[in-house]
Amino acid sequence: MKTLRRALRLAHITRVLVANGLDEFVFAIPVLRPVAFLHVLLPWNWARGKQAPRGLRIRRALEELGPIFVKFGQTLSTRRDLLPGDIADELAKLQDRVPPFSGSAARQIVERALGKSIDELFSEFEETPLASASIAQVHAARLDDGSKVVVKVVRPGIEAVIRRDVDLLHIVADLAQRYWRESRRLRPREVVDEYEMIILDELDLLREAASASQLRRNFEGSALLHVPEIVWRLTRENVMVMERVSGIPVSDIQALRAAGVDLKILAERGVELFFTQVVRHNFFHADMHPGNIFVARDHPHEPRYIAVDFGIMGSLTPEDQRYLAENFVAFFNRDYYRVAELHVKSKWVPADTRINEFEAAIRSVCEPIFERPLREISFGHLLLRLFQVARRFHMEVQPQLVLLQKTLLNIEGLGRELYPDLDLWTSAKPFLEQWMGEQLGVKALLREVRKQAPMWTQTLPRLPALANEVLEQAREGRLEVQVRSEDLAAIRRELRRANQRTVLAVVGAACIVSAATIYGLDGFQPMLFAGAPLPVWVLGVLGIYLIVTAWPGGED
Question: Which of 287, 320, 352, 421 is catalytic?
Fold first, then answer.
């Protein structure tokens, strides 16, 4: 049944792709490449006029496929290191517009989660939602003490929908990993794994509430950011209650000007806010698009941001921080050889990369930029240019830094929209200098010594005995590498299964092509089912079933 459900869902996806003029992407699947010439022979392509741009067609297809694919497209739109610019620009326009579920259903979810009736929990509860998205929707309410709050409720049944569609994304990623030569660099499986982790984390409102509390604590008493307070006694895994805040949407420039907000200071504070989160706190809001950021109306000459939606947060490991700090030092000193060397040492590019050639490529990107006024330099786009250049050297995408890259692009784009002459470098310099000092200076060395000292006190006394044992084994010829026979047998079994999967995939592809050909025949009038000839359905579903079965785990 699981395989049949996959096949039917894949059939629906294929239909949507074809309906949106994306059948060339279907034939780009490796198992269909041998028959890709049939694409131009299909009857519906003969009369097809000039098509819309490919980015627009992809966006329309994702919108038709539903909210999970919309969110995946939104995530991909931030990965300009993976996508051509025209597709990334179009995917950035995806809007998470989802019809709300009924207020009575939301009421029931809240009552089940909190074990009391709505009337006992709130003095007021508005069943008409304030906003509705793919994962949850928000209702206005009021507590018994008169406090205004919002109640966030996870959509009923959404987890099953997410797992079904993410399962299909894993199949596509496996396809790419097996047959796409770019897969080693772009790591499609890791991209889907990362998306799955992010979207499943968004289902857990306790996790989001904890992130909001941490961020609020980090900025307590700060004039930079206000984070709504969580009402913990009314918060569960699928229900979250928090302080209701009001402000001006940060993208509404006219309203900000009408309120007398100093846009220059607001833009500079946005940069300060980003680097404060990354450098001082190592905990940052990773979804800072305009829909999640507002501006408080009080003190327009010293404006303060208001953040909502804390489902996606980010942090860096000490290794990531050190790597970035060293790159910043080398970059500001125009030491491009060191930048190239760091890329190799950090395994961003293969170990056999010729550093001199890579250095020359980096210099060709950076030198022209340094000759321009600072206010014209986009740090986010500079990173993207570096990624594009590094593609020639087979640079591998680093998923652990994706959230940081995305957030930097968001905050820089927001700052430039507020104040086009924003000088990101000058605003960021104090934080970067502090960061580099902490990561590379004497303080960093002393901090690492203190951190490792307890482990050293346990390990050092044992080192002489361990060294002596290894030397004794080497002298007596007892050091050896063991290869178990069962491991070799497992490798042979996997090779046999791979051959069987290839045969199934080719047969399945032939069935799909036959179905597409029959569908386009003129004068062929067999029995119809749901608007398509019955043989088309039989061959199409059989073909997709065989291809799904060919995937690891498809036999389940």
Answer: 287
103-158+202-312 folds as Transferase(Phosphotransferase); domain 1 (1.10.510)
* Residue ranges of domains in the chain: 103-158+202-312, 318-444
The kind and range of the H/E element at 141 are strand 136-142
Quick check: 17 and 61 in contact, CB under 8 A? yes
Other CB atoms closer than 10 Å to residue 270's CB: what's the count? 29
State whether the Cα torsion 87-90-96-98 is positive or negative: negative
pLDDT along the chain (556 residues), means of 10: 68 72 59 50 53 81 78 70 71 73 94 95 94 89 95 92 83 71 65 81 93 95 94 96 94 92 91 85 84 89 92 81 74 84 81 88 81 63 70 68 72 79 74 72 68 69 72 69 58 66 62 61 54 59 62 53
Contact 383, 408 (CB under 8 A): yes
Distance CA 375, CA 377 (A): 6
Q: Measure the CA–CA gap between 223 and 219, rounded to whole angstroms.
A: 8
Q: How far is it between the farthest Cα atoms of the chain? A: 87
> What gap in Å lies between CA 280 and CA 430, rounded to an integer?
12
pTM surpassing 0.85?
no
Q: Give 27-71 pLDDT, tens digit per residue.
A: 555 545 554 545 555 555 555 556 778 788 888 888 777 777 777
Neighbours of 364 (CB within 10 A): 12
Long-range contacts formed by 179-186: CB under 8 A, 24+ apart: 179/30, 179/31, 180/30, 184/394, 184/396, 185/391, 185/394, 185/395, 185/396, 185/397, 186/82, 186/396, 186/397
The string of pLDDT tens digits covering residues 452-498 is 667 667 766 776 777 777 777 777 766 665 555 555 666 666 666 66
**β-strand pairing of 313-314 with 532-533:** unpaired
Residue 138: closest CA among 153, 125, 126, 156: 153
Tokens of 79: 């990965």
Q: How far is CA 346 from the centre of its chain?
A: 22
For 321, the token pair is 């921080």
DSSP at 277: I
The reply to whether 298 belongs to the active site is no
Say which residue the tokens 């740090």 belong to: 379
SS3 content of the chain, % helix, strand, coil (to 5): 65, 10, 30
